[in-house]
Amino acid sequence: MTNSLIQQKTTFLDLRNQCSFQSSHGATVNSSSRVARLSSSLMLTLLTITRMHVSRIFVEDKHKLLYCEVPKAGCSNWKRVLMVLQGLASSTGEIQHDEVHYGNHLKRLDSFDQKDIIHRLKTYTKVLFLREPFERLVSAFRDKFESPNSYYHPVFGKPIISKYRSNATQYALRTGAGVTFKEFIQYLLDVHRPVGMDIHWEPVGHLCSPCLLDYDFIGKFETLEEEANFLLRSIGAPSNLTFPSFKDRNPNAERTSLEITKRYFAQLNVTERQRAYDFYYMDYLMFNYSKPLPRMNSLY
User: Could you list the residue ranges forming a coiled coil in this record (predicted)?
Assistant: First the structure.
């Protein structure tokens, strides 16, 4: 980790003495003194880490970078950046969607043996970028259910419609197309879901194990380009490499914003909105996002 990562002002959020983060309006970073204080407890934590805990983390050895992917928080473009850092492409703009998601070019941390996993966790810069949980949820719904999708419609759409729509047409049951946001939320909150979870709406706390892994840099989607470019300069990335701003899918669609998120949550009743907040409660708490319900309820 480079010394330049310690320059920004931070505050501390201690979660049950197990999850310690430094959180600010912008990026979240560690100081050298904090690393020293946590060194002994970190070693104990490392011994409890399994491959499952690091399965979402990508490795870039040249610049000693570990990036935990959070879908719908800029992860496609982060993968493009990692491919350029690794020398697999000369620029992010030339990397197509299928290369990013299906090319299998990038190494994951769980592909290494335990010794090499621990070595990288101790010595590499560990990075996590996240997004306001409700915005991320709505973004995932719009992307996977409102556009044609050969995977999410049959795999998720069909069982969701079958269970939560009483007057479903044969076409809807056969194709899984046309899932409503309310039906999607019913599925999400159901303890007996007809189909399992998916990384696009899995809480970040489950994806990236922030209670076990002491991340060096936690950035937010709301200021993604600024923070990502700050990080790239800090790790010594090529000066001509900047974080891309283009959308990976549905480039003509408006990005999911707070206003768009409000419109979707207006389709839910107060209980459903509260339960959705409860579902993502730890993400709101750990990453210092304000509770959305008082602001949102006043608009309905």
Answer: none
